Amino acid sequence: MVYEVKSLNEECGVFGIWGHPQAAQVAYFGLHSLQHRGQEGAGILANDEGRFKRHIGLGLLAEVFKNPKDLEKLVGQSAIGHLRYPTSGNGSINNVQPFHYRFSDMKAGLAHNGNLTNAVSLRKELEDQGAIFASTSDTEILMHLIRRSQKETVMDKIKEALNRVKGGFAYILLLEDRMVAAMDPNGFRPLSIGQMSKGAWVVASETCAFEVIGAKWVRDMQPGEVVIFDKDGMHVDSYTKDTQLAICSMEYVYFARPDSVIHGVNVHTARKNMGRQLAREFKHEADIVVGVPNSSLSAAMGFAEESGLPNEMGLIKNQYVQRTFIQPTQELREQGVRMKLSAVSSVVKGKRVVMVDDSIVRGTTSRRIVQLLKEAGAAEVHVAIGSPELKYPCFYGIDIQTRRELISANHTVEEVCEIIGADSLTYLSIDGLISSIGIETDAPNGGLCVAYFDGKFPTPLYDYEEEYQRSLSEKTSFYIENVR
Question: What are the positions of the active site (predicted)?
Answer without folding.
Answer: 12 (nucleophile)
